[in-house]
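Much of the work behind modern protein science is quiet bookkeeping, done one molecule at a time. The protein below has been through that process, and both of its lines are reproduced in full.


***
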Amino acid sequence: MILSLRGRQAAPPRSCLQCGTEPARPDATICRRCGLRIGDPPSASATLPSCPLCYKTVDDDGRLDSLANSSLRVDILSHIAEHDRFPVGDDEFLESMRRGDRIRIGRWDAPFDVVRRYLVTGAVEAGRNRAMQHNAVVTAMAQIGRWGSDTPVIGDQPEWREARAAVTSLMERYHFRRA
């Protein structure tokens, strides 16, 4: 039995724990990207991989908590595969609103990646080293994140109020679980 940093059982890795790269062959023992042995913990100075679906970054042991089994820790590829059974929201619906790299919400549009990240994490941040484009939708997301969707805002403007209503409606629909 392999134990992780948190003392829980860790599944055998399917990918490099430092960079998240899948081995080229099933019998490969060294990562072709970073040169670390498959299964070895990441170096302390490494930039660790993040899940492209839920935006969680792996812990210092190169693993995340399993979505299927709370007593198990898994590598990034196994975590991503678990999202098939445990989606973060209705991405098909969100994709239907997409127009290239933008998304149309009500009468406004905004960068798709920023809106999806907000819907998943609840945080209005464009990520490391990225500037966020501010518009009515992004302002509405920041206001909802800070004060909630029903709180009156001092100096509120009708445009902001309407955008908050549109984003709140999208949030409710995106997180609606289909039966």
Q: What stands out?
A: The CA atoms of residues 103 and 109 lie 5 Å apart.
